[in-house]
Amino acid sequence: MSDTLEIADLLDLCRSKGLKIAAAESCTGGMVGAWLTDVAGSSDVFDRGFITYSNAAKRDMLGVSPATLDAHGAVSEQVAREMALGALSRSQADLAVSITGIAGPGGSEHKPEGRVCFGLATRDACQTETVEFGALGRAKVRHAAAKHAVKLLAQAALSLGKA
To answer: What is the pTM of this model?
Structure first.
C-alpha cells in the first residue's frame, strides 16, 4: 500500500493514547488488517481482525442478528453497526471499524456496485455511514473502502484517548 506513512501515523497516534483497534471486514477481505500489520510493531495497537465475508460468518463471529440481515441485507448501515459493535465486544479493542459493501461486479438498482457501509464503534458510541464509491471496479472499490476505514479509525483515535 502506498499509504504506509498514513498507517504508521494511525498506529503511532493510537499507541500514544493507549488505544487498541479491531476491524470487521467483509468486502475488503482483510485489507485493513493487512495494511495495519504491514507496519512492524503494530501488534501493540491492532488487537484482531474478523473477516466475515458470508452472512453466516457475520452471525457466528460478530453476533449480527439474523433478523437484521433478513430485514436490511448484509450491505446496510444496520449490519455495519452490529458488525462494529460485535468486533468491539469480542476483542480487547477501544475502537472497531466495520466494512460491508458491494465491490463488484454487479449490484442492483437498490444496492449498486460501489456502495459500502461502515461502522465505527467505541466504548461510548457507534456511528455508521454509507459511501457510494461508484462502479470503479472491484479492486478500486475495495482499496477506497479500506482507505476510508483507516480514515474513520484515525478520526476516532483523535477524539479518544487514555493519555
So the answer is: 0.95
